[in-house]
């Protein structure tokens, strides 16, 4: 009688311990998944900044080249501009603009955004690896004997891995 009670008690304790282990692993998977969501959201927030930086840079560049083109057309159409020094003044202004061209600032901003995006991509990949590691541990726990019997009774199912994208 004592042996039967001891066996039943041992089985109940084993099931309780296994249940707690599985629940911890499920919580770990959920945490890993939420980290991926956070990083994906942060990456999504960076992309409009990157697009805006490039768009602003190209608009400025377009305006500058339109101004230079207009000056060239004015030069060929109205030779009086040279006499009045207007073209020289405009060329000097354009040269000053070119010297203070925001290329470096735009490139620094673009570079910083690009670095942040790369950093974010690395964090997403790391979070996916952690998630996949957590899923692998969980799937292994519920697949091995005798855990698979208890997992089936308690209706625990295997989790899917996150597919890693090659960069």
What distinguishing features does this structure have?
single chain; de novo design (two linked rop proteins); 5 helices; 167 residues
Model description:
With 167 residues, the protein is mainly α. It has a domain of 105 residues: Up-down Bundle (de novo design (two linked rop proteins)), CATH 1.20.1440. It is 86% helix and 0% strand. The chain contains 5 helices and no strands. The longest helix is centred in the first third of the chain and has 76 residues. The protein is rod-shaped. The two termini are 63 Å apart. About 3% of the residues have low confidence.
| Rg, nearest Å | 32 Å
Largest sheet: none
Number of helices in the DSSP assignment:
5
Q: What is the C-level CATH assignment of one domain? A: Mainly Alpha
Mean pLDDT metric:
78
Structural class call reads: mainly alpha
Strand content: under 5%
**N-to-C order of helices and strands:** HHHHH
Q: Brief overview, please?
A:
With 167 residues, the chain is mainly alpha-helical.
List the helices and strands and how they pair.
Elements (H helix, E strand, L loop, with lengths): L1 H76 L2 H5 L1 H14 L3 H41 L3 H7 L14
């Amino acid at each position: 009688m004592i042996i039967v009670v001891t066996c039943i008690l041992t089985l109940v304790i084993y099931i309780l311990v296994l249940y707690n282990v599985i629940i911890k692993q499920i919580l770990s998977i959920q945490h890993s998944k939420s980290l991926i969501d956070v990083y994906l959201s942060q990456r999504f927030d960076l992309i409009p900044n990157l697009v805006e930086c490039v768009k602003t840079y190209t608009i400025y560049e377009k305006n500058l080249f339109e101004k230079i083109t207009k000056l060239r057309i004015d030069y060929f159409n109205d030779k009086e501009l040279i006499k009045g020094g207007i073209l020289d003044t405009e060329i000097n202004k354009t040269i000053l603009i070119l010297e203070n061209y925001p290329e470096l600032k735009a490139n620094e901003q673009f570079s910083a955004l690009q670095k942040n995006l790369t950093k974010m991509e690395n964090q997403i990949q790391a979070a996916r690896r952690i998630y996949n590691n957590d899923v692998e541990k969980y799937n292994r726990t519920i697949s091995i004997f005798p855990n698979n019997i208890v997992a089936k009774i308690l209706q625990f199912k295997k989790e899917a891995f996150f597919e890693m994208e090659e960069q």
